[in-house]
Amino acid sequence: MDSDRHPDAIARLIAPSLALSGCLYASMWRDTLAAGALTDEQRSSHFPATPYCGMTWVLDGDGVQVLDDGSERRLPGRALVGGPRSRPAQFRSDAGTRCFMVAWLPDALHALTGLDLASLVDGCESIESVLGPEWQTLSASLLAAPDEHACQARLEAFLLPRWRALAQSQTAPPRRYRDWMENLALKAVAGGHGESLRQVERRIKRWSGQSLRALRSISRAEAAFHQARGDLEAGAVLWSALAQDAGYADQAHLCREIRRVSGFSPEELRRRIFSHEAFWAYRVWV
């Protein structure tokens, strides 16, 4: 199998401290400074649709978002906040880069910032333009950090007192979309006793930026990703059996959903995850 993966391109997943498990899902670090000259494709990064929100700090380099028609849109800054994504996204760095990315539970980000997440779905803004001075001070500190460990430490030192002040539950972190989604739905119902289903759904969308139906779709796709990874490690994937186990009507239904979430068929996505540098986020996340 042909591969364009580069041995000097670094991608890491960082788990948050337990005290922030109800706030942050995980952080990712991307460093290609030591990789030298990379092709356009190697400098790309592919991400699936996700219910999580994100913050990104670009410590070195610059980049663009690659749109569906192949055109490029310059990112609005080096410190960014983005909402959930209802479709896959592709980004490309100009040259060597170092980026620190954080996946937020949407209801936590909404509670801490007051941001209207529905207006950020499939988009991003500079932190400077939408958040206050203390967040801008945090951004300046992270952009000057020497490495991913310093980034994570500075972020957690900033968040811990603010998160504790909200008196949120600090139970073990949900490791699957489904766990978080079910907890979010339960909180929405409990917070609106006697309300109609439509009112509960509006609360879920206000907290998460997406409908419960969209969240369930991504939850099921994530379960399929994890099972496929396990099946591959055990030998091979039988897509028809995986579709049944993950709750899809049939294999065709699975293929449609995986393509909607990732932009690729299940088999093509599997091949790219293992052989393409641009799919580093899938490799560290799944």
Automatic annotation (TrEMBL):
GO molecular function: DNA-binding transcription factor activity; sequence-specific DNA binding
The organism's place on the tree of life at top rank: Bacteria
InterPro entries from the UniProt entry: HTH_AraC (IPR018060)
Coiled-coil intervals: none
Signal sequence range: none
Domain HTH araC/xylS-type positions: 182-272
Protein name: AraC family transcriptional regulator
The organism of origin for this protein: Roseateles asaccharophilus
Lineage: Bacteria, Pseudomonadati, Pseudomonadota, Betaproteobacteria, Burkholderiales
